[in-house]
């Protein structure tokens, strides 16, 4: 179909590149935090009418749909969606070289439309075209699927194909924002495009207009562990990508021994940031010599506020959705209405759980939520460190809601889910525990708004930011969390929520974390919930007024504009 992008190509744009972008639950173009953050980012740019376009992969077979058997053993099924339900396929085509073949790349456009009338297009790149060889048609099918070769092919399509597609569509781009290193091959395309026009040079590397390319690039890193950064041997690079620019130049910018996408982005970006203050510091330690800033993540307020809270915000804090700073006036909401809005959300969650699992949960029992990727460092089982102690203090007075997918190759993540199932069965009559399968954005909203406390127990300093706790705060649900990522900035003890374990300046100590978790739960949090409801509502209020007020993607995008984009 011929689709007119005229309204968008008038002025220069900031191009936001991300391997995954999650805009809605039924479009499986995301796996977790990174993709949901990207979706929230784009929604805020549309609300704020920023001159942005976004580029990602179509991945119409999704990440995976999670099935769990009676023992909590995970199997992965395809999670397909039909792009025609949501997007328009464009006629434009570009070509990338992969394994010596010309691979045609098309695009679908999804329009994020804001209530403010702002519109931002997301281009979903698609290699599944009849002209392509069968193996190439699969390149953009599965998010984080396949092997190392498959990943590099996807990154060629995203970075190089995406940059060419924007040009083909007629966009002028004034900044390329790489959301994580997956898209940094776009830098090679820019180096080639802006090559200096010099006839004879002594050193071949002098022809690269490094300053020009650098002035165009913004890089956000999300990963606080070295192993999390994509690397490819030059043998693989040569075989699959060939020469976009000569190999010796690639080595100069992306690493002598292997092509490191993070290094490439670090070397050629004008602005680099981590996703929370602490993560900025950790990244400086990992990459000495680079100027690394920090812009703490946020969530899209309207998306992550449940219906009952939208209603009281509309009534007492009109304008909140496009100006979350208005949460500063949260004290205008009467305590009883705040509590009733919470109980409405909690009832919806409990009803949903009882329908899905026959767990027999009830509305009045204190309920903890824990939902995120199932992987070892997140320690979903920290709460089970001493099951007898947990039972003694909480029997009949506690319910726990879990959810989360383990990456198909993450064996210890999968075992964590089985461990939760084991404890769930063992404590059946004492503490009700449920594990909701197939965690996605819909379930995330239900759980973050419907529980009484949001628990997070990462092993420091491995949580770069974390965003689910910010969703909870938008629904008046206080955080109870290890002091890592965003919570270092959001936490005021006994006021906006509670910390687990010591200050972030001292080394991590798992035994102390568990002890602190039990102590506070038994002596502070549960007693306040059951016997001092007026104090409890104060904390709920502060979660909104202190946490949702700040940890939203509108504030985050305003900072990207003033600190990264206008430079
Ligand atoms: C928000 C969200 C995440 C990120 O949660 P963290 O606690 O930041 O890890 C992951 N998956 C889904 C579906 C989400 O909605």
Summarize the structure.
This protein has 567 residues and is an alpha/beta fold. It is built from 20 helices and 20 strands. The chain has two domains: 12-298 and 557-565, Glycogen Phosphorylase B (Rossmann fold, 3-Layer(aba) Sandwich); 307-551, 3-Layer(aba) Sandwich (Rossmann fold).
- CATH class category of the largest domain: Alpha Beta
Radius of gyration: 24 Å
Provide the low-confidence segments as ranges: none
Residue-averaged pLDDT, rounded? 96
Tell me the major beta sheet.
Answer: 10 strands, mixed
Determine the fraction of residues in helical runs and give it as a percent range.
Answer: 25-40%
Q: In the CATH scheme, what's the topology name of the largest domain?
A: Rossmann fold
The tally of beta strands, per DSSP, is 20
Ligand names:
pyridoxal-5'-phosphate
What would CATH call the homologous superfamily of the largest domain? Glycogen Phosphorylase B
Please work out how many helical segments DSSP would assign.
20
Whole-Å distance between the termini?
38 Å
CATH architecture of the largest domain: 3-Layer(aba) Sandwich
The amount of beta strand, in percent, is 15-25%
Structural class, by secondary structure, is alpha/beta
Cα shape: globular
The figure for the number of domains is 2
């Amino acid at each position: 179909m011929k689709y007119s992008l005229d309204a968008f190509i008038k002025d220069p744009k900031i191009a936001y590149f991300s391997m995954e972008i999650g805009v809605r639950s039924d479009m499986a173009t995301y796996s977790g935090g990174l993709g949901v953050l990207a979706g929230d980012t784009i929604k805020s740019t549309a609300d704020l009418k920023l001159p942005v376009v976004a580029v990602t992969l179509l991945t119409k077979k999704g990440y995976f749909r999670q099935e769990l058997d009676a023992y909590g053993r995970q199997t992965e099924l395809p999670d397909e969606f039909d792009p025609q339900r949501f997007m328009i396929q464009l006629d434009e085509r570009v070509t990338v070289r992969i394994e010596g073949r010309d691979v045609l790349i098309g695009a679908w456009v999804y329009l994020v439309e804001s209530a403010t009338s702002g519109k931002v297009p997301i281009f979903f790149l698609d290699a599944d075209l009849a002209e392509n060889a069968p193996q190439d048609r699969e390149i953009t099918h599965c998010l984080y699927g396949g092997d190392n070769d498959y990943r590099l092919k996807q990154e060629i399509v995203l970075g190089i194909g995406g940059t060419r597609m924007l040009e083909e569509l007629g966009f002028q781009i004034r900044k390329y924002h790489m959301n994580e290193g997956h898209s940094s091959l776009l830098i090679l395309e820019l180096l080639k495009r802006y090559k200096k026009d010099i006839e004879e040079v002594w050193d071949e590397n002098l022809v690269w207009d490094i300053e020009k390319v650098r002035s165009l690039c913004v890089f956000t890193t999300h990963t606080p562990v070295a192993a999390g950064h994509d690397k490819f041997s030059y043998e693989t690079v040569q075989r699959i990508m060939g020469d976009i620019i000569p190999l010796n130049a690639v080595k100069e910018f992306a690493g002598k021994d292997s092509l490191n996408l993070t290094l490439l982005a670090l070397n050629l970006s004008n602005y680099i940031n981590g996703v929370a203050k602490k993560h900025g510091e950790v990244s400086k330690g990992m990459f000495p010599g680079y100027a690394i800033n920090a812009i703490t993540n946020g969530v899209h307020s309207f998306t992550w506020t449940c219906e009952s809270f939208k209603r009281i915000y509309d009534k007492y804090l009109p304008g909140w959705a496009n100006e979350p700073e208005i949460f500063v006036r949260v004290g205008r909401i009467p305590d009883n209405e705040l509590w009733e809005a919470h109980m409405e959300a909690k009832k919806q969650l409990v009803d949903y759980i009882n329908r899905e699992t026959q767990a027999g949960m009830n509305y009045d029992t204190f309920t903890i939520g824990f939902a995120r990727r199932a992987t070892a460092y997140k320690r979903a089982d920290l709460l089970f460190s001493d099951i007898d102690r947990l039972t003694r203090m909480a029997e009949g007075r506690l319910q726990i809601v879990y959810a989360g997918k383990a990456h198909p190759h993450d064996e210890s993540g999968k075992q964590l889910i089985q461990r939760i199932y084991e404890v769930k069965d063992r404590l059946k009559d004492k503490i009700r525990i449920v594990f909701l399968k197939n965690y996605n954005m819909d379930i995330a909203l239900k759980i973050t708004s419907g529980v009484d406390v949001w628990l997070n127990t990462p092993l420091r300093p491995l949580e770069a930011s974390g965003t689910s706790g910010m969703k909870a705060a938008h629904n008046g649900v206080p955080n109870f969390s290890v002091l890592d990522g965003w919570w270092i900035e959001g936490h005021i003890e006994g006021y906006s929520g509670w910390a687990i374990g010591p200050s972030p300046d001292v080394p991590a100590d798992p035994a102390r974390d568990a002890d602190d978790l039990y102590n506070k739960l038994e002596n502070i949090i549960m007693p306040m919930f059951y016997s001092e409801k007026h104090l409890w509502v104060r904390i709920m209020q502060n979660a909104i007024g202190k946490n949702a007020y700040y940890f939203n993607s509108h504030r985050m995008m305003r900072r990207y504009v003033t600190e990264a984009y206008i430079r």
